[in-house]
Every structure is written in C-alpha cells, then in structure tokens.
C-alpha cells in the first residue's frame, strides 16, 4: 500500500511528502495519522535529523481538508487530532521548511504556517476558504496567519477567501522567497543544506528561544532568553579547531 506521507532522509535533512497527488494531496484523517507518526519519529531523531522539508507530490502542496472525507463521515482518532498534529509540526526541535507549489488552501495553509520557513513556487496559490464552506478555524489559522502577515492582511484573506500568489506571498511576508517551479526543490534543498551546516545544538536552541519568546513581553522575553538559552554546544571545540585550520 502506498504511504500517504513519504519520508526520505539525506545529509541530515528529512523530506516529508504528501502523497495523494491524484486528489491534490487533500488532507483526510488517514493522512494526518501517517504524518503524526513521522513527526513523532523525527522529534526523537535529533542526532540524525537537523532540518525537515515538507512538500507535496504532483502539482499541489495540498488543496486542504478533504471535503469528500468530511461528507463520508471519516474521522480522526480524536476530535483535536489534526490541530494537535499541526502543533507537533510547529513544536519539532528541528527547523522546518514548507516547499509549496500549486494549491495551499485552508488546512494546508495551516500546516505551512506551522513551518519555520516557506519557499513558494510561482504556481503557489494560498487561500483561507473557511468562509466558502461555512466553517471557522480550529487548527490555528486565526492565530498563526496574523502573526505571519499582520492582522490587517490576515483579516482580508480570511474574510474574502481570495487567492494569494507565490510572488505576493513573498512580498507580504507569508513566504521567504518565490522561485520558478522548476527551481523550487533546488531552492528548498539549498536552504536546508545551509541550515544543517550550522550547529544543530544552536539550531534547536534558537528555534526554541524564538518560538517560546513570542509568548512574552519584550522585557520578559529578554529575561527568558538569558535564563533559558542552552548555551554552548558540544561541537564548539571542533568548530573552533576547523576555523583555526582554515
């Protein structure tokens, strides 16, 4: 049986790929179950995985929640399973990159927003379509989208459901970069390679400090950084030796 989410590891980078291309990688409950298993395994693999790339097979990242599955009455293991899976993605100790081509709608956008970085292809189309289907967010859209693009733009996207192109996504801060579709995988790979070349101890520490620091005022956040910074990593001496040898 073909896995709904595939995992490929190379050079410290784990690549997770939604694998329902004939359904535009629509997010049914079974896909979330498979995704959660991968995320749980990666969270425990900090010695072998330094960065994660999340993408979709075929011409779309994901068209969003599978409406056919909803109509068929398919359910996840628990009522909050999808939201908790997105939170597990956000909470991974390793930096994460969403590589998006084609559709990235609603639930898929919520997954992309849980990643630390986002690279868009020129074909990328971002939208929140909750209003189109008489739904309201439960997986984090109302919290993550305003934090990414600002309240004004987030409300516009959520109220109108309009489609944001890859180029606009980069312009408004939804994406780090927009490249030609043919260059998307190369750009995501280059970004991931640049990340894993640095100390994984530092990567995990910086991600934790930035993410958790957002829950504080500036003064409290500065104190949080001083108190919670993991400090020097075990690879410091080796990196200093390599620097001295150059």
Computed over alpha carbons, the radius of gyration is 18 Å
By CATH reckoning, the class of the largest domain would read Alpha Beta
Number of domains: 2
**Mean pLDDT figure:** 96
Per CATH, the superfamily of the largest domain is 2-enoyl-CoA Hydratase, Chain A, domain 1
> Low-confidence stretches at least 5 residues in length (pLDDT < 50)?
none
What fraction, in percent, of the residue positions are helical? 40-55%
Any idea what the shape is? globular
**Cα distance, first to last residue?**
50 Å
Q: Structural class from helices and strands?
A: alpha/beta
Question: In the CATH hierarchy, what is the architecture of the largest domain at level 2?
Answer: Alpha-Beta Complex
Give the number of DSSP strands: 9
Query: Order of SSEs, N→C?
Result: EEHEHHEEHEEHHEHEHHHH
Assembly status: single chain
- What is the CATH topology descriptor of the largest domain? 2-enoyl-CoA Hydratase, Chain A, domain 1
Q: Biggest sheet, in brief?
A: 6 strands, mixed
Strand share of the residues? 15-25%
Number of helices: 11
Strand order of the largest sheet: 1-2-3-4-6-9
